[in-house]
Write a structure and sequence with these properties.
Blueprint lengths: L8 E5 L3 E5 L2 E6 L2 E5 L6 E5 L8 E10 L3 E10 L2 E9 L13 E4 L6 E4 L2 E2 L1 E2 L8 E2 L17
Antiparallel strand pairs: 1-4, 2-3, 2-10, 4-5, 5-9, 6-7, 7-8, 8-9, 10-11, 12-13
Length: about 150
């Protein structure tokens, strides 16, 4: 992750990506985007069309990323369960991140599971970051104890 750039870059991915809530697969695609940033595992953004109808519900609140702009939040719904504010998107992303306007990121620790190429993702520590950790990425990662201010 230390070889990832700052500012971050967005790149297309052809990996198989799935999102599960309430025991149901609510999202699946083989065309997503990864945001790569120094000291973070990749964050995957799935096209809205990858999600089951009714699984994305607007949620309150926004946040600001110095690189991508203002994010809006989504509840993710599946199997009778609601993962509150587990998804986010950039309705008007900054230059260089325009492709993310039609995509949704998911906080792996807030859903049943996220899967990349049949490997269950481990969530990035800290509850704030949305990185997806697989065996293909090596830390340390920002978010764990003692990593504030990296």
């Amino acid at each position: 992750m230390w070889s990832y750039p700052r500012p971050p870059r967005v790149e297309p991915s052809r990996q198989s990506v799935e999102v599960w809530v309430g025991g149901e697969r609510i999202g699946a695609t083989t065309l997503s985007w990864r945001v790569l940033e120094t000291s973070h595992p990749p964050t995957y953004y799935l096209p809205r069309s990858a999600f089951v109808r009714g699984s994305l519900r607007p949620a309150e609140g926004t946040s600001y990323c110095e690189w991508k702009g203002v994010a809006s939040y989504l509840d993710l719904v599946g199997g009778g369960e609601v993962a509150r504010r587990a998804g986010w998107f950039y309705p008007d992303p900054t230059r260089g991140f325009e492709v993310l306007a039609a995509a949704v990121a998911v906080m792996p620790g807030a859903v049943d599971r996220c899967v990349v190429d049949d490997e269950v993702v481990r969530p990035q520590e800290g509850g704030f970051y949305g990185g997806w950790i697989t065996d293909r990425v090596v830390g340390p990662f920002k978010g764990g104890p003692g990593s504030h201010g990296w």
